[in-house]
Amino acid sequence: MRDICLVRAPSNLGLRPLHAGHVPGTWRAPQALSEAGLIEVLVPARVVDLERPAYSTEPQPGTRLRNGPAIRRFNLDLAEIVVSALGKSEFPLVIGGDCSILLGALAAARRSGAVALVHIDGHSDFRHPGNYDVDAALGSAAGMDLALATGRGEPLLTEWPGIAGPLVADETVVQIGEREGRDADFAWPDINATAITRIDVFAAQELGAAGVLEKTRATLTRADCPYWLHLDVDVLDQTIMAAVDSPGSPGIDPNDLVAILSALAGDQRCIGMDMTIYDPDLDPDGDLAALLVSLLGRVLKQR
């Protein structure tokens, strides 16, 4: 069993403000989860903290990505921490923060060669300049992380030092949990034309945990490389996890989610995991923080 290196990544840079003057609260998630008992439950070998980056709502020169330069800097710092953990044969668990932290984790993993990705999220986060008008509004990287990871978007967040090509290839990605892909107005239907393995929430409900794992493992076997595990907690139904910026229904059953994550995190090919999007500002009593700590404990106790 590999020791856990808990990396607390307090970023809200990839999220849009929900109204004038709003600052997304996901930056508080690592501390809130720690106060809810995360360290006592996981007993990590090390805890590493990144500094909270400054959030801005203003456009920045040379990019149409909100907080783009700051996201790059934060992820380069995160990558160094994850590289260090992997070099010590630890299991890096990165607690965000918003989904843009996935980029730094993958940039670290890719330094040793190809890496696959299991992307568990209520949204496929495939927004990129090919499917929206970049001049109409600033782009939010938290809704673009899968597109950026597969090389779609501004070089600012698709090109990383020492890495040729995208962070992950389409055919090595499994996306689990999308709930809007069957809607007539689905925002990024071009994902249907990619080689990404897609198991939307409806298919996941039909297949059950065992079926989802079978389909996921088939893709990972073909990829034949280590993989990273990404969890956006909005994959849970909004009646269970409301403390996210874009809640929705339906969601993956919590017990099925634990079964899927436990099996994937326990595989020796899984080199690390991140968890994102929990917003303590939307959980004033801390009940959902406790739920997530319990979930992570169940997932990682037998890793």
Q: In words, what does this structure look like?
A:
The protein is an alpha/beta fold and 303 residues long. It is built from nine helices and eight strands. The chain has helices at 29-35, 38-42, 68-87, 101-109, 145-149, 155-158, 201-223, 254-265, 287-300, and strands at 4-9, 46-49, 91-96, 116-120, 173-176, 197-199, 227-232, 270-276. An eight-stranded parallel β-sheet has the order 2-1-3-8-7-4-5-6, with helices on both faces. Helix 1 crosses helix 9 (287-300) and helix 8 (254-265) packs across helix 9 (287-300). The longest helix is centred in the C-terminal third of the chain and has 23 residues, at 201-223.
Q: How is this structure best summarized?
A:
With 303 residues, the protein is of the alpha/beta class. The protein has helices at residues 29-35, 38-42, 68-87, 101-109, 145-149, 155-158, 201-223, 254-265, 287-300, and strands at residues 4-9, 46-49, 91-96, 116-120, 173-176, 197-199, 227-232, 270-276.
Which class of secondary structure composition applies to the elements?
Answer: alpha/beta
Please name the fourth-level CATH homologous superfamily.
Answer: Ureohydrolase domain
Rg, alpha carbons: 17 Å
The count of helical stretches stands at 9
Strand content: 5-15%
* Secondary structure: helix percent: 25-40%
Layout of SSEs?
Blueprint lengths: L3 E6 L19 H7 L2 H5 L3 E4 L18 H20 L3 E6 L4 H9 L6 E5 L24 H5 L5 H4 L14 E4 L20 E3 L1 H23 L3 E6 L21 H12 L4 E7 L10 H14 L3
Parallel strand pairs: 1-2, 1-3, 3-8, 4-5, 4-7, 5-6, 7-8
